[in-house]
Amino acid sequence: MDIRSPSKGYEEFYDRARDRGVNFIRGRVSRIDEDPKTHNMVVHSEDANLGMPIEIEADMVVLATAAIPKKGSADIARIINLSRGADGFFMESHPKLKPMDAPTDGVFYAGACQGLKDIPSSVSQGSGAAARAATVLSKTKWKIEPIISIVDETKCRNKTAKCGVCVSKCPYGAIEAEPNKPAHIITASCHGCGTCVAECPQHAITQMHFTDAQIIAQIRAALEEKPEEKIMAFLCNWCSYAGADLAGISRCEYPPSVRVVRVMCSGRVDKDFILEALRLGAGMVLVGACHLPYDCHYINGNYKMKARTDALKGMLIKLGMSPERFRVEYVSAAEGIRYAEVITEIDADMKALGKEKILAETAKLRPILENMLKRRLSAPASAAKPAA
Ligand code: SF4
Ligand code: SF4
């Protein structure tokens, strides 16, 4: 059997096992029975190298069962706001840059809580996590990322009527809204996902460095010429944008019709961004996010985006938009090839729809979208004319 063992010393371990008489057979076990006469176990499988079924009689069969996260992991994740991967293990803040850090500041991982590990890896990760914790404890002041959100108290509705939408949407519990007072963001707890900005009905929240005005300016610049031939893509920083980056550095080919706006989290994609792209005549609109259920770097921003865009898409279809013109795709940082495939597929759908149909739909939708966006469009800095 052609085995290559991945970690340091594993190849030697494999060789030693072979020297002591262990035979490795490549194949998939289909069934295990007990022989009624000998009471031995009979393993039915295939030998993939020989390409034929085999039966092996054995005194004992040991199954390598899948490892799963410890019971209670879900509760801990909920209580201290941790992300979990698709397998349910705790997920690091960034696989390469912050492999021991949890998304919640001051929490570090070591050992099998994050995925299966052998003892040397667990020990070295434990030392690393202790060193990371020491960097926090040794400082009297802590610097945070500058992309946090702030509330414009003059616009917040909570002063006069109960609102608190942002409070319920923040994955980190970073927002307080006491009765008859404007909402308040606890700066030290804000991680800058921007979900509250997209959810606030009053447009009272601004995310530093990812303001609505900045993002809308990017949409308008991207769709200045021949918007009906463009795919307007909003990609989350940690998964889909990184996937697009990987597609680039891996030299995957995909159509040049895509124009990308980077947001920190898909939860930041305000429905107005999608409406504005369609108002300006974008051929297709894509929101790229981290995989459901657990991959979101900001715990559950992808779910918040999904709830928002599911409702929006239904409404746009009722208004006459072709369903394929707006889609949400989940692409991880490791899926450069998938990113290229998704863009290729969307581009093919756009060509199949045809410019005439896209232009006709845009002309029909535009007055409705202008009405829906009238607050944005009436703002002096926001006025923009559609291309044609
Ligand atoms: S969602 Fe907006 S209006 Fe409502 S409480 Fe939060 S900041 Fe205020
Ligand atoms: S929703 Fe995101 S951006 Fe808004 S306060 Fe919470 S962490 Fe910060």
**SSE sequence, one letter per element:** HEEEHHEHEEHEHEHEHEHEHHH
How far apart are the termini? 64 Å
Helix content: 25-40%
Strand order of the largest sheet: 9-8-10-11
Give the rounded overall mean pLDDT: 92
Question: How would you describe the shape?
Answer: globular
Instruction: Count the domains.
Output: 4
Number of strands: 11
Q: Unreliable segments (pLDDT under 50, ≥5 consecutive)?
A: none
**Helix/sheet category:** alpha/beta
Hetero groups: iron/sulfur cluster
| Main sheet record | 4 strands, parallel
Q: Can you count the helices?
A: 12
Secondary-structure topology with pairs:
Blueprint: H1 10-19, E1 31-34, E2 41-47, E3 52-58, H2 73-79, H3 119-137, E4 149-151, H4 165-169, E5 175-176, E6 184-185, H5 195-199, E7 205-207, H6 212-222, E8 231-236, H7 240-249, E9 258-263, H8 271-279, E10 284-289, H9 301-318, E11 326-330, H10 336-353, H11 355-372, H12 374-378
Parallel strand pairs: 8-9, 8-10, 10-11
Antiparallel strand pairs: 1-2, 2-3, 4-7, 5-6
Helix pairs in contact: 7-10, 8-11
This protein binds iron/sulfur cluster (SF4) (2 copies).
One iron/sulfur cluster binds next to helix 5.
